[in-house]
From TrEMBL:
InterPro entries: 3-oxoacid_CoA-transf_B (IPR012791), CoA_trans_fam_I (IPR004165), NagB/RpiA_transferase-like (IPR037171). Belongs to the 3-oxoacid CoA-transferase subunit B family. The keyword Hydrolase does not apply. This is Succinyl-CoA--3-ketoacid-CoA transferase. It comes from the Bacteria. It comes from Arsenicibacter rosenii.
Length: 209
């Protein structure tokens, strides 16, 4: 949940935000009416609320792009996928928060295919990665085998090139000021030495005091 909270801190009132499957969906449960953030899903909904508190399913509630039941906030609207992707491709999504399999020094993203494993399809990830004004990636810092997900150059099939603005992992927060991968924050409980040891890519350190 630390990653979701850190991602929420990057959003501002009035932002139209699309949340990807996995860790990003947790952000929806943290957003209150006071935040003034409008959630969009590519399957055709604007004004997404948190997961239903009564445990209701898809027969009772609308679903997000990950097929998870969600609630609808006051003033929400529904539309078809053509209109939804027109919003995305037209540059009307302020921030996209999505998961990642690899991010590299050049802000490239791979998040939809692992060779040798069944393909689920890229969905709207390519459109969002290119169309959103800002792209935040939330993911674990390493793979189950301990290898880094932040790499010199992506080896997995790319989703989009040069698109990542920020990476939030369970250990650290990276951004790309001046086009260079830069460590800007440590997550709760993480140490600088641990981040250095577990990051495959080269990066600049610019931690605030």
């Amino acid at each position: 949940m630390h990653m979701a909270r850190r991602a929420l801190a990057e959003l501002k009132k009035g932002d139209v935000v699309n949340l990807g499957i996995g860790i990003p969906t947790l952000v929806a449960d943290l957003i209150s009416e006071e935040h003034g953030i409008i959630l969009h899903t590519e399957n055709g909904m604007l004004g997404v609320g948190p997961v239903p508190a009564d445990g209701g399913g898809a027969m009772d509630y609308p679903v997000n792009a990950g097929k998870i039941p969600v609630t609808a906030l006051k003033g929400s609207s529904y539309f078809d996928s053509a209109d939804s992707f027109a919003m995305i491709r037209g540059g009307h999504i302020d921030v996209a928060i999505m998961g990642g399999l690899e991010v590299d020094e050049a802000a490239n993203l791979a998040n939809w295919a692992v060779p040798g494993k069944p393909l689920l399809g890229v969905g709207g990830a390519m459109d969002l990665a290119k169309g959103a004004k800002r792209l935040i990636i939330t993911m674990t810092h390493t793979n189950p085998d301990g290898s880094s997900k932040i790499v010199p150059s992506c080896t997995l099939p790319l989703t989009a090139t040069g698109v990542v603005d920020m990476v939030i992992t369970d250990l650290a927060v990276f951004a790309y000021p001046d086009g260079q991968l830069t460590l800007i924050d440590l997550m709760p409980g993480a140490t600088l030495d641990e981040v250095r040891a577990k990051t495959g890519a080269g990066f600049i350190e610019r931690l605030s005091d």
